From TrEMBL:
SMART domains with a match to the protein in the record: ANK
Protein name: Myotrophin
Name of a matching Pfam family: Ank_2
Record lineage: Eukaryota, Metazoa, Ecdysozoa, Arthropoda, Hexapoda
PROSITE patterns referenced in this protein's UniProt entry, alphabetically: ANK_REP_REGION (PS50297), ANK_REPEAT (PS50088)
């Protein structure tokens, strides 16, 4: 681990869907946070990796998080597909 970043952070950051799936199946924490406050979900959101976002949300990543700057994940997302996934999972979380 470097700066608190887990292998799942790196897989999500680089859009490695199969690696994300494998790590989650092996028990990786979908809500892991690095020393900067960046979760695995936020890494995938920022990089626009829709499939990784979907996998993380399906495995329990919390959709209502904030970036280190205090911006909601929904506002931080640029892709409409990711915004929609976050909205659906935020609704389910209520």
């Amino acid at each position: 681990m470097i700066d608190g970043r887990t292998p799942l952070h790196y897989a999500a950051d680089y859009g490695q869907n199969e690696v994300v799936r494998y790590l989650l199946e092996k028990g990786a924490n979908a809500n892991a946070t690095d020393k900067h406050g960046i979760t695995t979900l936020l890494a995938a959101i920022w990089e626009g990796h829709t499939n990784c976002v979907k996998l993380l949300l399906e495995k329990g990543a919390k959709p209502n998080g904030l970036t280190p700057d205090g911006i909601s994940y929904l506002d931080a997302a640029e892709k409409d597909e990711i915004k929609q996934l976050l909205k659906v999972h935020q609704h389910k979380a209520k």
